[in-house]
Amino acid sequence: xxxxxxxxxxxxxxxxxxxxxxxxxxxxxxxxxxxxxxxxxxxxxxxxxxxxxxxxxxxxxxxxxxxxxxxxxxxxxxxxxxxxxxxxxxxxxxxxxxxxxxxx
Length: 104
Description:
The protein has 104 residues and is α+β, with helices and mostly antiparallel strands. It has one domain: Translation Initiation Factor IF3, CATH 3.30.110.60. The protein is 36% helix and 21% strand. It contains three helices and four strands. A four-stranded mixed β-sheet has the order 1-2-4-3, with helices on both faces. The two termini are 24 Å apart.
């Protein structure tokens, strides 16, 4: 995966504001089911907001990094107990002028 430019990252960060968390990390942390659910969300939406529950032992930043690494994604931002991860999906159908998949 090629490194993202600052400009691309900033554009994705701006889009993060409008997203609702679609994946929630519970007390069990990074389970197989959670990673599978995140993988599915990334495949269809590319940009996914993750809400991290309270009793998780790692910091949100550590958890976000580990989660992103396990699903081959990049962490876009971490604010409090919420992080946003991105993974480009070249198989998604796109037409010029279409909204990005996370805005559909």
